[in-house]
Write a structure and sequence with these properties.
single chain, 190 residues, alpha+beta, two-stranded antiparallel ribbon, elongated
Amino acid sequence: MLNCNFCKRECKNDNSLRNHERLCKTNPNRQSVKIDAAREKAYKKYDCSYCGIGISLTNFKKHENHCKSNPKVIEKKGKNCPVCDTFFISESVTCSYSCSNTHFNHLRNKPETYNNYRTICFKYHKKECVICKENKIVAVHHMNEDHEDNRPENLIPLCPTHHQYVHSRYKDDVLSLIENYIENLNLSVA
């Protein structure tokens, strides 16, 4: 058997002896002391010269090259959103998901009028169910079942429950109330 030169511990082979001596606590030149110093250096935070945020050494250069406060990054990637005109720094075309949905709306498969049927409906009708006056969650029902027909008189605001009634065997319970609403509808008051 092989023994450690520092603590006299027995080791099975040359490799285990070499590894043990390298990390042995009684070795004055043990490697873990060097490892501890390297860890301390790696965990130390360095302040970004642009934004002042503390960054570890391993990510410091990458952060400074992409920091949104870096004038070179602002010049290269900064732009105004085509929808809301807000200045932002990014590779993307718009500043947010909301603006993206608005900006790229024309690329959807549905006709533009279909995407706006809720807007059309609530422009001419109060945002509440015509049967129960629910105003927190309001669906829009196409009376003639044609989703291409977005005339205000075809769009009826209903709560999810009554909207489900219309599409079920219970439609007779609510259909007369909806037809009464349509008869009394005055669209010129929009």
